[in-house]
Inverse folding.
C-alpha cells in the first residue's frame, strides 16, 4: 500500500538536516524497493495558494494556514501496512527536528474506462 510521509519542520530547523543525509536514506529505501518518490520543498515564502470560490480563482502568496511547523518535503513509500510505514517515517532524518505525518494514499473511485 502507498503511504505519503509529509515532512514538517519548524522554520528555525529548516536546514537542520543536510541534503546528503536525506539522499542517503532515500537511497536505502530505493534499494529496499520501498521508495516511490521523494522531494524536498523550497521555503514557505516561495509558496502560492490557489482557491476557487464561486468560479473565481484567488491566488495568494504563502501557505494556506499559519502553523508552527511548515511542510518541508515528502516521501511516497510502498509499505506492507501502517506499522511498516511508521517505521520508515521514524527513520526520515528530519523527524529528529520536526514531525512526519503518515497518510495512506487512496485510489480515485472512478469508472474503469476513465482510468489511464
Amino acid at each position: 500500500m502507498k503511504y505519503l510521509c509529509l515532512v514538517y519542520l519548524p522554520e528555525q530547523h529548516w536546514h537542520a538536516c543536510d541534503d546528503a543525509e536525506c539522499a542517503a536514506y532515500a537511497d536505502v529505501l530505493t534499494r529496499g524497493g520501498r521508495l516511490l518518490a521523494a522531494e524536498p520543498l523550497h521555503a514557505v515564502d516561495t509558496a502560492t495558494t490557489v482557491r476557487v470560490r464561486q468560479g473565481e480563482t484567488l491566488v495568494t502568496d504563502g501557505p494556506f494556514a499559519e502553523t508552527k511547523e511548515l511542510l518541508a518535503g515528502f516521501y511516497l513509500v510502498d509499505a506492507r501496512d501502517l506499522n511498516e510505514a511508521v517505521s520508515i517515517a521514524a527513520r526520515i532524518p528530519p523527524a529528529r527536528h520536526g514531525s512526519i505525518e503518515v497518510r495512506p494514499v487512496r485510489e480515485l473511485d472512478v469508472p474503469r474506462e476513465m482510468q489511464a
Remarks:
- Strands lie at 2-10, 35-40, 48-53, 56-61, 69-78, 99-104.
- The mean pLDDT is 90.
- Residues 19-31 form the longest helix (13 residues).
- The radius of gyration is 16 Å.
